[in-house]
Amino acid sequence: xxxxxxxxxxxxxxxxxxxxxxxxxxxxxxxxxxxxxxxxxxxxxxxxxxxxxxxxxxxxxxxxxxxxxxxxxxxxxxxxxxxxxxxxxxxxxxxxxxxxxxxxxxxxxxxxxxxxxxxxxxxxxxxxxxxxxxxxxxxxxxxxxxxxxxxxxxxxxxxxxxxxxxxxxxxxxxxxxxxxxxxxxxxxxxxxxxxxxxxxxxxxxxxxxxxx
Length: 212
What we know:
Elements: H1 2-27, H2 33-54, H3 63-87, H4 93-100, H5 103-115, H6 121-138, H7 148-175, H8 180-195
Helix pairs in contact: 1-4, 1-6, 2-3, 2-8, 3-7, 3-8, 4-6, 5-7
């Protein structure tokens, strides 16, 4: 039962992940891609901190694990979010959602290579079902353009998938030692500090553009 619940949860995450591309595309009209990533993780840190504190989670980690947490925040949160948000400047949100639905498959292949885990047919089936779910959601608005800018966007999406796969591998290394909530909270806090310097070079949001 727990296994089925886990797979269903993954499917729902991928579907909501795909839907989020619509809101991201709208926000990118007034918010710089990197700053948007910062704003998202300000909210993320706020909520996970409340949950972690309520559960009295300890934030103590070893020095060696600190490096892994930092790399995960840099590659899987800062880099991934920046690449993905920038890609959506050049491609449609529906096309971005289709690319994002490939992420679980990439993660599955990555963990197989690094951790020598076997890939079960039902895992592939569940991933294909989640991809189909995303496709059915965005099919009415799906547009695939072929231009130099769109190719750049597709390339950035591919690199974002790769960065998330690396993040998943790094995260799996520490989740073998620490509680998942503790891992998520520490990574989110580190990512937030990695994002902060972007405010020095990126323009601040101009939400007045929504009135036009």
